[in-house]
Amino acid sequence: MNNKMRSVLAILLAMTCISVNGEDPYLFYEWKVTYGTLSPLGVPQKVILINNQFPGPRINGTSNNNVHVNVFNQLDEPLLFTWNGIQQRKNSWQEGTLGTNCPIPPGTNYTYRFQVKDQIGSYYYYPTTGLLRAAGGYGPLTVVSRALIPVPFDKPEDDYTVLVGDWYTKSHTELRSMLDTGRRLGRPQGLVINGKSGKGDGKDEPMYTLTPGKTYRFRFCNVGMKDSINVRFQGHTMRLVEIEGSHVVQNVYDSLDIHLGQCLSVLVTADKEPKDYFIVASTRFTKEPHTATATIRYANSKSPASPQLPKAPEGWEWSLNQFRSFRWNLTNSAARPNPQGSYHYGKINISRTIKLVTSAGKVDGKLRYAINGISHVDPPTPIRLAQHYGVSDKVFKYDLIKDDYKPTGEDGQDKITLGPIVINGTWKSFVEFVIENPGKTVQSFHTSGYAFFAVSIEPGRWSPEKRKNYNLLDAVSRNTIQVYPNSFAVVMTALDNAGLWNIRANSMEKHYLGQQFYLSVHAATVSLQDEYNMPDNNLLCGIVKDLPKPTPFRA
C-alpha cells in the first residue's frame, strides 16, 4: 500500500465510527507530525503540523466513544500529546505528560487509546514535551451528547471551533533556550485565531459563513502560552451554554474573558444586517493589548465589516464578577441522563484541605517557579512507571509539599528547592484545594483526571472563615481555574479516578520551570474495577526499561 492510499484509508477510518462486539464505537486517527513553514503573524517561522494542518485536525466524538490516535513522530525530538480536559477514567496511562509516559522518539510511532467516558464538551490537545507547544501542534477535541440524551438548546445550524492564543515569532528552540538559561520569555508578539492573526482591513477571507436567521455554536479555547484573552462578536451577543463539559445557566454576554487553558461554547444568531462582521480577540491585563480578528460572513454578503471594533473591558474586577455569574445548569442532563445538579457536592464533608501557594525565584542563578517552595522536576523515569514497577523509592519521594504550607521567608517567600512533587491522595476522599497567588499577574491552573467545582475566587488570603462565602449549590464543574493577583481560588473534587494526575500552571513558562505537581490516587487493593492495566504498547524508559513486566491487575 503506497503512502497516498494509506492517507486516504486513515481519513476514512477517522470519519467512521466502528462498533466492535457491542462495545461503544471506535474512532481511528492517524497523525503524521512534521515541521512546516507558516507565517501566523506575518513572519515565516517553523510550525508543527499534524497531517499538514495547523491547527491540527479536529477530533470529534460522542460520549463514551473509544478514540485511537496513531502518532507518527517525524520531528527531530521526542514528543507527547495531552488531551486537555479528557478525564481518562481509570487510564492515566494515556495522559501524555512526562510524569506518566515516556516520550515518542523521533522516527517512531505510538498509538494513544482512550475513551471519552461520561463526558461531553469543548477541549483541545497539544504537545507537552520540550516547549513544542510554542511551535503549534495543537487542535480541537469536541465531544457531543449521545442521541438519546437531551441538551438544553436546539441543534445549531453548525458547530465551529475557535482556538485563540498568544504567539511568539521566536522558534520553540530559542524560547526553550531562554528558559533553560534562566531568562523569562517576555511578551508574546501577537494573537492568532485558528493559526491566523487577521488584519481587520476587510481583505481577509471569511473564516466562518452564516446563513441569516440561523443559530451557530462557537467553541472557544484559549490555547495560548501566557495571556488571558477577551472575545466578542462585532454587533452580536453570545449566549453562554457550556464551560469545559458542563451545561451552564444561559446568560447573554457582550464579551467573555477566557483564561489560559479554558474552553467554553456560545450560541450566536445571525440576526443582523447581512454583511461581514469580526470576531475580535484581545489580550487582557497587559499594558499594550494585542488584538486579532476573524471574519464572519453572512451568506452572499458583499459588504465589508466595519473597521470600528468593539472594545474589551478593563481591570480584573470585571473579570471576577463575570466568573461569579457562571452557574451550573442544575436541571439539565450531562453525559448521563441524570440532572447535573443531582450530585450535591455542597453537602459532602471535606476530607482534606490542600493549600497551594505559588512563588517565583532563582535556583543556582536561574529562574524557577514553585508551589509551596518546591519547583517540580520530571525524573528520567516517569513517575507512573516507577510506581507500577515498584521502584518509586529510587525515583521520587511522596509529599514533599505540605498541606498547610505557610511561607516563613522575610519577603513572604521561602527559598525554592527542586524535586519531583507527588502528593499522595486518599482514594474516594473529598478534597478542597486552595490556590493562593501572591503575585502581580493572573494565573491559571488545570487538573487532569478530574473535573472540580470552582466554589470561590476572592481577593486576599484564604482562611477557614472564607468558607461561608463558597458557592455550594451551583458552582460550575470544570477543569481549569484562574487566580487573580493577590487573590485565592478554591476548588473541590472527589478523588474517585485512580491513577497519576498532573496539576499544572497553564502558563507554559511557569509549567516548564516547575509550577506543577502530580496527584497520586490509588485504591488500597489494586483491581481492574478501579484502574486499567499498563497498555501492551506502552513505551518504557529510565530504570524500568529492562525490568520484567509486573503482574497485570485482575478484576
From TrEMBL:
One of its GO terms (molecular function) is oxidoreductase activity. Residues 33-146, 158-300, 398-521 form the Plastocyanin-like domain. Pfam families: Cu-oxidase (PF00394), Cu-oxidase_2 (PF07731), Cu-oxidase_3 (PF07732). The keyword Glycoprotein applies. Keywords: Glycoprotein, Signal. Residues 1-22 form the signal peptide. Gene3D superfamilies: Cupredoxins - blue copper proteins (2.60.40.420). Belongs to the multicopper oxidase family. This is L-ascorbate oxidase-like protein. It comes from Capsicum baccatum. The lineage of its organism: Eukaryota, Viridiplantae, Streptophyta, Embryophyta, Tracheophyta.
